[in-house]
Design brief:
heterodimer; A: alpha/beta; Rossmann fold; 2 domains; 6-stranded parallel β-sheet; 13 helices; 11 strands; about 35% helix; B: Rossmann fold; 7-stranded parallel β-sheet; about 15% strand
Chain lengths: ~325, ~325
């Protein structure tokens, strides 16, 4: 470790540590567990306009020409207008798996590379997706409520769930998270198919170019793709009807991948079989109709929330920044496909 | 076969009841007000008993049924059947192996995920409106945790296969080491517990495995350890487990079975590191039908003098 630091600091003396802007909405901060700032300070000169006494705009314009990289915290947006204030920017390091808060086309046209955090989170998100699926099928949370409510001695029996083995799982978005989900569910004897922007030739699973076709051939849809203009409400009424009355939807992507109003209607009317949801269109608000349903499992956007994910995020953040400033390949750059 | 008397020990599945009634003269034991009188009256026509994990055929019942030829259990566990007595009297015994293996293993993994990632707790958090006030706390990563399995039979192996897909190192305890198996073997449950993060009970309940998870094992597992029980309640010393959980000497538990079902220790209801299920290991539509078909198939085979499908004795 010490050797690595010395090599790195051969390029930069302590006064010349590369400048990194911390871009954050006032209510968001870099994680304190592990302590991100303490781990970044030895390698980078951090600028945080919200911690400076000077007004935001003048602080930013004063430092603009030294800012080649920024970290954007959580869902803090990066707009084209903001990019116009940073003419030397070459790298945006995202701290979430999703990048729907960043104007990616604007970054592309300015030659700014963007990295995300999917690979740091993919195991934990995959675990959560599988956990939600087993929970919905086998009624785990509902049965736990049943037992805690002291209903077991009263009602004696509990309604049957459904077998996971043999279910046809359709993964929407086969990136790092989708691949980890596929790997796990294969061990439960599920068959896997997927939809993605483009077919992936090295992947052994059947590809469907159209999400409705995937739904028609699946018992479960698992959503783990990026939220973009194209994928907003990609799960709409047609897809839900194609999925069918026994079909399940698991969402660990973004709430707006699903037309939430229609989802609620379909669940209440029994037009789909159930859902496991970690994300919602208007968090932390959850449609009240869902709160009384036993075939739905609700999770407060916490698929990534383990100490290990945050540690991995820190490592990835430091590694991407160091790679950028050493002109080496970035670790988790988002491709333009 | 309509004259053959079949005694069903307790309610277990309406499809099974219906199918038994179509073929045999079905007696529903739980509807009988005076059991000894009933047995005295009907003892000569009852040639089969259908039991499950709650009720089967103990020595007393077997003695009361002189024409009993076969006990078909709607379960894979046989702890409610006096096997020695059946052997002694030449009574056949069948169970329902294999068809429920996947469901029980799936549930074991589901329990691990639910306990470590606090899925049930965070669902409660959302339903109670608390999310509007702040984010839920961090939970524990499951991928990569060391899983220790007590009993590497069909169910134990199925749990291992699934846990491997989450990069969990697997170790096990069994009566004898299995040299063809690549997982690490420990010759005692205490050593297994000391070397894993999640301890899963997946063995049969016998005299030897009663309270196989005891105070010593719980201490070895430690304050970050988790017990998952998809076996039988009596595998675990329940009062010891409860006090370890309440005192935080044990990290958590996922329990599908209890010593005195349907009673569950009330101290567990206030804990956020346990998941409690009403014995649903094989409780899926698909598997219960397959189990019922196996019970019917075994009974039909017996009364047609054909080889039994899944005999134990």
């Amino acid at each position: 470790m010490a050797t690595k630091q010395t090599d790195y600091q051969q390029h930069f003396s302590s006064q010349e540590l590369p400048v990194v802007l911390v871009n954050r909405l006032p209510s968001f901060r870099l994680p304190s567990k592990p302590p991100f700032i303490d781990n970044l300070l030895p390698h980078f000169h951090l600028l945080d306009p919200h911690d400076a006494p000077e007004p935001y705009d003048s602080f930013l314009s004063r430092h603009a020409h030294s800012i080649r990289a920024l970290i954007t915290v959580g869902p803090t947006p990066v707009t084209a207008e903001f990019l116009n204030l940073l003419p030397c920017l070459g790298l945006i390091v995202g701290t979430s798996a999703g990048l729907d808060h960043i104007d990616l086309p604007a970054c592309r046209s300015r030659g700014i590379a963007v990295t995300n955090a999917s690979s740091a989170f993919s195991e934990d998100v995959a675990d959560c997706a599988v956990g939600l699926l087993i929970d919905v099928l086998r009624r785990i949370s509902a049965a736990d409520r049943f037992v805690r409510g002291q209903m077991w001695p009263v009602k004696k029996e509990y309604p049957l769930g459904f077998k996971l083995g043999g279910k046809r799982v359709g993964i929407v978005g086969l990136g790092s998270i989708g691949s980890e989900i596929a790997k796990r569910l294969s061990a439960f004897n599920c068959s896997i198919a997927y939809n993605s922007r483009k077919k992936k030739p090295s992947v052994p699973f059947p590809f469907y170019a159209n999400v409705s076709d995937l739904a028609a051939n699946s018992d479960v849809l698992i959503l783990c793709c990026a939220l973009t203009e194209e994928t907003t409400h990609i799960i709409n009424k047609d897809v839900m009807i194609a999925l069918g009355k026994q079909g399940l939807i698991i969402n660990v992507g973004r709430g707006s991948l699903i037309d939430e109003k229609v989802l609620v209607q379909c669940l209440v009317r029994g037009e789909i079989g159930g859902a496991g949801l970690d994300v919602f269109e208007n968090e932390p608000n959850v449609p009240k109709e869902l709160l009384g349903l036993d075939n739905v499992v609700l999770s407060p956007h916490c698929a990534v929330m383990t100490p290990e994910s945050f540690e991995a995020l820190l490592q990835l953040t430091v590694a991407n920044l160091k790679a950028f400033f050493s002109n080496k390949p970035l670790l988790s750059v988002v491709s333009n496909e | 076969m309509e004259s053959i008397g079949v005694l069903m020990a307790c309610p277990m599945n309406s499809y099974l009841e219906h199918e038994l009634e179509k073929r045999f003269n079905l007696f529903r034991f739980w509807t009988v007000p005076e059991k000894s009188a009933f047995l005295a009256t009907n003892k000569n026509s009852i040639r089969a008993v259908v039991g499950n994990s709650s009720a089967g055929a103990d020595a007393e019942l077997i003695e009361a049924l002189p024409k009993l030829e076969i006990v078909a259990s709607f379960s894979v566990g046989l702890d409610k059947i006096d096997l020695a007595k059946c052997k002694e009297k030449g009574i056949r015994v069948t169970n329902t192996p294999d068809v429920l293996t996947d469901d029980v293993a799936d549930l074991a993994i589901g329990l691990m995920l639910a306990v470590l990632r606090k899925l049930c707790e965070s669902d409660r958090y959302v339903r109670s409106g608390k999310w509007k006030k702040g984010d839920y706390k961090l939970t524990t990563k499951f991928t990569g945790k060391r899983v220790g399995i007590i009993g590497l039979g069909r169910i134990g192996m199925a749990v291992a296969k699934r846990a491997e897909a989450f990069s969990c190192p697997i170790s096990y305890y069994s009566r004898t080491e299995k040299p063809e198996i690549k997982y690490k073997y420990y010759p005692s449950v205490v050593e297994l517990a000391a070397n894993c993060d999640i301890l899963v009970v997946a063995c049969l309940l016998t005299e030897e495995t009663l309270h196989i998870v005891n105070r010593e094992v719980i201490d070895a597992l430690g304050p970050k350890g988790v017990v998952i029980n998809v076996g039988r309640g009596p595998h675990v010393d329940e009062p010891e487990l409860v006090s370890a959980l309440v005192e935080r000497r044990l990290g958590g538990a996922g329990l599908d079975v209890f010593e005195h079902e349907p009673e569950v220790p009330e101290e567990l209801f206030g804990l956020d590191n346990v998941v409690l299920l009403p014995h649903v290991g094989s409780a899926t539509v698909e598997t219960r039908q397959a189990m019922a078909d196996l019970v019917i198939g075994n009974l039909e085979a017996h009364f047609l003098n054909k080889p039994l499908l899944t005999p134990v004795v």
